[in-house]
Amino acid sequence: QKEVEQDPGPLSVPEGAIVSLNCTYSNSAFQYFMWYRQYSRKGPELLMYTYSSGNKEDGRFTAQVDKSSKYISLFIRDSQPSDSATYLCAAVKVRGGGADGLTFGKGTHLIIQP
Amino acid sequence: GAGVSQSPSNKVTEKGKDVELRCDPISGHTALYWYRQSLGQGLEFLIYFQGNSAPDKSGLPSDRFSAERTGGSVSTLTIQRTQQEDSAVYLCASSSLSPRSTNYGYTFGSGTRLTVV
């Protein structure tokens, strides 16, 4: 079992819909969680970063972490065709003064239909 | 520079040849990571450099892979005797912030697409 699981999709929704992207993780040592967006032939770019359980909102994006169920979500409101990309969840453990490398899910390919 | 720079952007090599991939992180970033991204496999951690500490090489898939970081800045990932299964996008990321910072996150380069024929 991979430490971070994510459905690869593709997930196709009409423009304007609310999108829900999800990941589960198995290691309780993960303390920080992130969502990255990756366009074709580009590197991932950081979208959202969360530490504790709860919600964090940034514009049309809301990240949610439930540590009790080890569940991570990203919601996109009023989805746009420009949101079409691969979305990767990531988790990181912290040891001592530094961090391990990020552990990524496989990414979900999202398609917003105009 | 303004971002993480990787070169070359594309590399085609013959099986058995050695290749070197370069990463120029954001100036001042103390942490540098190499990842490999293959179709259907997601992002795979390879190696992590943090300041002057010994690198974390736990993700390197075989002894054909090695990496170094000179002067705490530029890093080179070397793959010796390349095999077809080494074909992937190799991504470099850098970070200067502690994970405890509210703006913590890695900045990725655009990657080097390696094709072994």
Molecular structure report:
The complex is a heterodimer of chains A (about 110) and B (about 120). Chain A is an all-beta fold and about 110 residues long. Chain A is about 0% helix and about 60% strand. The radius of gyration of chain A is 14 Å and the shape is globular. Chain A starts with a strand and ends with a strand. The model of chain A has no long low-confidence stretch (mean pLDDT about 90). The termini of chain B are far apart. In chain B, strands 2, 4, 5, 8, 9 and 10 form a 6-stranded mixed sheet that branches. By secondary structure, chain B is mainly β. The chains are: A mainly beta (about 110), B mainly beta (about 120). Chains A and B meet through strand 4, strand 5, strand 9, strand 10 and strand 11 of A and strand 4, strand 5 and strand 9 of B.
Any key phrases for this structure?
heterodimer; A: 114 residues; mainly beta; 7-stranded mixed beta sheet; 5-stranded antiparallel beta sheet; 59% strand; B: 117 residues; 6-stranded mixed beta sheet; 4-stranded antiparallel beta sheet; globular
Query: What would you call the shape of chain A?
Result: globular
Unreliable stretches of chain A (pLDDT < 50, length at least 5) are none
Instruction: Specify Rg of chain A, calculated over alpha carbons.
Output: 14 Å
| Residue windows where pLDDT falls under 50 for at least 5 positions of chain B | none
Oligomer: heterodimer
Largest sheet of chain A: 7 strands, mixed
H/E series of chain A = EEEEEEEEEEEE
Tell me the Rg of chain B in angstroms: 14 Å
Range of helix content of chain A: under 10%
Percent of residues of chain B in helical segments? under 10%
H/E series of chain B: EEEEEEEEEE
- Overall mean pLDDT of chain B stands at 89
Shape type of chain B: globular
The percentage of residues in β strands of chain B lies in: over 45%
Q: Provide a count of the helices of chain A.
A: 0
Ordered list of secondary-structure elements with their pairings:
The complex is a heterodimer of chains A (114) and B (117).
Chain A: E1 4-6, E2 11-14, E3 19-25, E4 30-38, E5 45-50, E6 54-58, E7 61-66, E8 71-76, E9 85-95, E10 98-99, E11 103-104, E12 108-113
Chain B: E1 5-7, E2 10-13, E3 19-24, E4 31-38, E5 42-50, E6 65-69, E7 75-79, E8 88-95, E9 107-108, E10 112-116
Parallel strand pairs in B: 2-10
Antiparallel strand pairs in B: 1-3, 3-7, 4-5, 4-8, 6-7, 8-9, 8-10
